[in-house]
From TrEMBL:
The organism of origin for this protein: Microbacterium barkeri
Residues in Gfo/Idh/MocA-like oxidoreductase N-terminal domain copies: 8-122
Residues in the signal sequence: none
Domain GFO/IDH/MocA-like oxidoreductase: 134-267
The protein's name: Oxidoreductase
A GO molecular-function annotation: oxidoreductase activity
Domain of life: Bacteria
């Protein structure tokens, strides 16, 4: 990987989310998308033509392509680890959509194999690298709320079956509101507090089946095999606790609620599923009956899907850790597994893995210039 030559990127998975990745990566001078692959080669070809990518084909053809140095893995969660491991074995760095895997052993094996081969694994979400969350992390680092001691988060809706034409996979093991949306909130929390030490949770599934609402399959039923309403509590190794709701059962939509309580104030962080948003604070002191949110200035790049790829490419060149790392993805996976295990057993579950909390991105960092 040379210092100035763009890194060749190959996609495996040409579904809905590939559009936004392709649109943003085209704006970054560090990388060049050279190939798109999918088990549906017709879909891969259509995406390649739409975005001006010269090569399309099967996943195996992408892995064998000599100009692909880094694979963007946008497959379904159940095969994330399998596809990422194949890319590592082909000598490619990997950026994968979340989660890193659906079981801890597979994710752990992937991270270990990459380290043995001197390759990098990056894991979504990279929304935490955008202006919204990074401005919040910089505000916390400069002491705006004192010492963070607690957090509350909420993600509540009726679920993706109300809009997605093929929602079945959202309700299979490795998905559900915890595995699908949890990484945005949990990755933000570990960036604030560091490693999770314990998890306890309650959850339920209101109905064993759901019905497709949108698209050609409208009216088709499919099974629900995961909890769809979850209350989760975390205790962090370095101190602090959090309480979260992850629900696809709520007629009241509440998205992107992340509030960090500190010894000197409470910070409302922008939606961690987005790259920007309002950053607000309530400071300690004064009459609590007259409290009003104060807007804090956000700074830094907004960005979009693919920021994690750019940070990883630059980290390789600079010989430093990248921020949306496989280790953080693995820790978040273990935390989600602990949440589901606590639901099953009714017990508090320990989280054994540990991560280094990344430093906030400097406000003057940009992916648009070398």
């Amino acid at each position: 990987m040379s210092e100035h030559h763009p890194v060749g990127v190959g996609f495996i998975g040409a579904g809905m989310i590939s559009d936004t990745y392709l649109e943003h990566l085209a704006q970054f001078p560090d990388v060049e998308v050279v190939a798109i692959g999918d088990i549906d080669t017709v879909r891969a070809k259509a995406q390649a033509e739409k975005h001006g990518v010269p090569v399309s084909g099967s996943p195996d053809e992408i892995l064998a392509h000599p100009d692909v140095e880094l694979v963007v893995n946008l497959t379904i969660p159940a095969v994330h680890a399998e596809v990422s491991l194949a890319a590592i074995d082909a000598g490619k760095h990997v950026w994968s959509e979340k989660p890193i895997a659906v079981d801890f052993a597979s994710g752990q094996g992937l991270v270990k194999r990459a380290a043995e081969k001197g390759l990098r694994v990056g894991i979504a979400p990279d929304t935490v690298l955008g202006r919204g969350v990074q401005s919040a992390l910089r505000a916390i680092a400069r002491g705006e709320i004192g010492q963070p001691i607690g957090a509350s988060t909420a993600m509540m809706s009726l679920g993706p079956d109300k809009w997605h034409p093929n929602p079945d996979f959202f309700f299979l093991p490795g998905a559900g509101p915890v595995f699908d949306m949890g990484p945005y909130y949990l990755t933000t929390l570990v960036n604030v507090f560091g490693s999770v030490a314990k998890a306890s949770a309650f959850g339920l599934t209101s109905t064993p089946t759901r019905t497709v609402v949108a698209g050609d399959r409208a009216g088709a039923e499919f099974p629900v095999l995961v909890p769809t309403h979850v209350n989760a509590n975390l205790e962090f190794e370095g101190g602090g606790t959090s309480s979260s709701i992850f629900s696809w059962e709520s007629p009241l939509m509440r998205m992107g609620v992340v509030e960090i309580t500190g010894t000197e104030g409470t910070l409302s962080i922008p939606d961690p599923n987005m790259f920007e948003g309002p950053l607000r604070i309530i400071r300690a002191g004064g009459d609590p009956r007259e409290q009003q949110w104060e807007e804090l200035e956000s700074d830094g790049v907004v960005g979009g899907r693919g920021l994690g790829v750019i940070d990883m490419v630059r980290a390789i060149r600079e010989d430093r850790p990248h921020r949306a790392s496989g280790e953080i993805g693995l820790h978040v996976l273990e935390t989600m597994i602990a949440i589901e295990r606590s639901i099953e057993t009714g017990e508090t579950v320990a989280v054994e893995s540990r991560i280094e909390r990344p430093a906030p991105i400097p406000a003057d960092w940009t992916p648009y210039e070398l």
